[in-house]
Amino acid sequence: MAGPLTGITVVDVTTNISGPSLTMILADLGAEIIKIERPDTGDDSRGMGPFWEGEGVYFLHINRNKNSIVIDLKQENGSKIVYDLVEKADVFVENFRYKKAEKMGLGYEKLKEVNPSLVYCSLSAYGQDGPLRERSGYDAIAQADSGIIGINGAEGSEIARVPVSVLDQGSAMWGAIGIISALLHKEKTGEGQLVTTSLYETGVFWVGYHMLSWLATGQEPKKNGAGHTAFAPYGAFYASDAPVMIGISNNSLFRRLCNVLGKEEWVTDPRYETNPKRVENRENLRVAIENILQSKPADEWVGLLAAAGVPSSKVKKISEVVEDEQAEAINMWKKVPHSSIKDFKLPRLPFELSNSSAEVKQAPPKLGENTKDILEKLGYDEAKIENLLKDKTIQNTEEKAESR
Asked: What PANTHER family does the entry give (predicted)?
């Protein structure tokens, strides 16, 4: 089954996490991704450990379904190859620092001359304007700047970032939505355009209701750990062997929780009879709930709570999620052949389409694996390719997965 972006060609000069995550989304949806990498080292994420049979797990996660070509963009011949690729492409994606693309001859205005209908996406740290636009930034830096770290964790706890690349991959999502929107506009009008997004914009959007809370009350939002400002009981409560996450947002759910815990009298207790009262007395309620939960293991409590319709889950370790029967039931893992990793599998995109599905078709490429093939498709003859190899404008590796 062909993906919805089948027939779309994307020239990808991104590196690290954000840009490659964006082009991974497009790749899974069927687009052909021509991933341009620097000589010798390639994408920075290739060197990010831990390593699995010599491959960096960061790279493995977000570079499936792509073709790798190694080009030295500092050489004039290298730029010429990129222009040849862009001339026949639909989309160009970069995540350089502010104005670096322009200095390299790869800015929007230049590439629009090469291909007037090009959809060009620039994914940056802070956006195209403002006093911070020239700063480089990584996920954790943008988490700090957008207020996420400031509200993360519990009061009095050590400062901690959200330990997943929430802004790298969040900005990738917005970039992908922007590109797909621009492609739809192009289909209707024939016009290409510039798409921009950034880690900082994503972070500010994510904390939106916390900002509105401050505007409404004049009070800085408090850190809540696993809890919630607006509801109680809401958070992680320790059973005999592990924490259980419980979420109560209304009186009906609280009544069900009380029935499971054998504390029906709490429903009419003046301290707990309304959500505002429960929020006011959340600590007393937390201690009382944990005293009861200590009598059984987490899985048993979750079974009882789920049967009663109470939102709950064991706080799972990553190792448990990998083997989780729910993830298995919804086919979150997709196996793909890899030249050096046995039983290699990757998580699919977290949505499905009934008639034009996203797919994980092939493992991430070796560095420069597709250089020769891509140039041949551009019309470069054997002699020209050999000359480019000799002057080190390009690199090519014949090491390919045996199964491909």
From this structure: SUCCINATE--HYDROXYMETHYLGLUTARATE COA-TRANSFERASE
